[in-house]
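Technical annex, item 7. During the second reporting period the consortium partners agreed on a shared format for inverse folding records so that results from different sites could be compared directly. Each record opens with the tokenized structure and is followed by the designed sequence. A conforming record, contributed by the partner at site C, is shown below for reference.
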């Protein structure tokens, strides 16, 4: 763990820390003030982003498909149909680095496979920082309909073959 994360976490106001409703054993590793006057916080198991009602939305690391830091904004896309979040950070500190590291650490498998009917799918396996069974997601090539049951069946078959080969 990067030592400056824990140093930065010591300055998080107590009222904000209480509002995060951290799970047992969870601790803040990094935080940043947002342009709206709230906070974004990084823990070992999740990213906390401010909500419109002055609360926080908890995103477990394995539920984040992609995160990007660009032009003062943290852009986060959830796996599947979970949605996207765009948070302007007034002072980013170690948050972008910590987010990228934590999201990447959940990925245990990522491979692109060709589909029989043309095109392909990226199969990604993620595991929670606490361990447990992998959670598998499909990212279909552009132009393919992810809701097509035939494509999903083909992707499921690819996944089954890959799981047999890798033991995951």
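Designed sequence (site C submission):
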């Amino acid at each position: 763990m990067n030592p400056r994360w824990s140093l930065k976490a010591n300055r998080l106001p107590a009222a904000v820390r209480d509002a995060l409703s951290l799970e047992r054993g969870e601790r803040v590793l990094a935080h940043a003030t947002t342009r709206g006057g709230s906070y974004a916080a990084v823990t070992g198991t999740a990213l906390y982003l401010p909500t419109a009602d002055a609360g926080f939305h908890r995103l477990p690391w394995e539920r984040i498909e992609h995160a990007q830091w660009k032009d003062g904004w943290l852009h986060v896309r959830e796996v599947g149909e979970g949605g996207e979040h765009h948070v302007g950070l007034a002072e980013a500190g170690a948050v972008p680095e910590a987010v990228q590291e934590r999201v990447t650490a959940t990925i245990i498998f990522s491979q692109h496979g060709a589909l029989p009917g043309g095109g392909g799918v990226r199969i990604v396996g993620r595991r929670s920082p606490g361990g447990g069974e992998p959670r598998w997601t499909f990212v279909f090539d552009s132009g393919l309909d992810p809701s097509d049951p035939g494509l999903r069946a083909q992707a499921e078959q690819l996944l089954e073959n890959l799981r047999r080969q890798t033991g995951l």
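Confidence is low (pLDDT under 50) at residues 1-9. The radius of gyration is 18 Å. All partners now use this format for quarterly exchanges.
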